Amino acid sequence: MSAQAQHSGDVPLFYRRGFRNVLQQAIYVAATAIVAWYVYTSLDLRDFGFGFLSEPAGFAVGSQWLTEVDGVTSSRLEIYLVGVWASLRAVMVAILLSTVVGVFIGVARLSSNFLLSKMATLFVEIFRNTPLLVQVVLWYAVLLVGAPVIQDVVNVGDFFFLSNRGIAIPWPVPSGGLWGVPDWFVGVWVLVLIAAALVAMRVRASRQEIERETGQPHYPNRWAFSIFAGAALISFLLLGVVVSIDRPILDGTQYAEGMVIKPEFAALVLGLTAYTGAFIAEIVRGSIQALPRGQTEAANAIGLSGYQRLTLIILPQALRQMIPSVTNQYLNVNKNSSLAYAVLYDDLFRVATVIQNKAGHALEMFFVIIVTYMIISFAISAVMNVFNARVTANRL
Amino acid sequence: MSELPPIPRPEQLPLPPAGGPRKIILPPHRERARRPWRIRAREWVNRNLFPSLTGTILTLVSAGFLGVLFIGVVWFVFFDANWNVITANRWLLFAGSFPREEAWRLWTSIALVMFLIGLAYGTWSSLGRRDSLFIVLTGGFVIFLMAHGDATIWSSIWFLAAIGFLYFGYYLTVWMPRETSPRRVLQQRVVGGLLAISLPLVLVILMVAGGANTRQFDGFVLNLILAPVGIVGGLVVAIPLALGRASNMKTIKWTCTAYIEVVRGAPLLGWLFVALFILDDIMGGDLIIRTMVVLAVFTGAYMAEYIRGGLQALPRGQYEAAQAVGLNKLQSMQLIILPQALRISIPPIVGQAIAIWKDTTLVTVILTLRELKGNADSAIAQSEFIPDRIEAYVFVAVVFWVVAFMMSRVSQRVERAQGIGER
Amino acid sequence: MRWPSLKGRRLVSALLFAGAALIAGAVIGACTSDEDQQQAQAVEQQQAMQQQQQQDQPQAQVSGDPRGNTVQLVKDRGILKCGVKQTQPLFGFREPDGSVVGFDVDFCKAIAEALEVDLELIDASDASTRFELLANGNIDVLIRTTTITASRDRELGVDFAQTTFYTGQGFAVHAGAGINSTADMGGSTICVQSGTTTEQNLADHFTDLGLSYTPLGGSDQETQDAFLAGRCDVWTADQSNLASRIGVLENASDFVILGELISKEPLAPGVRDYDSEFKDVVNWVVHGLIAAEEMGINKANVAAMASNPPNTAVARLLGVPFEGGEVSTLGFDSVGAQFIQRALIAVGNYGEIYENNVGDAVPRACSLNALASEDKSNCPPGTGGIQYALPYR
Question: Which end of chain A has less neighbouring CB within 10 Å, N or C?
Answer without folding.
Answer: C
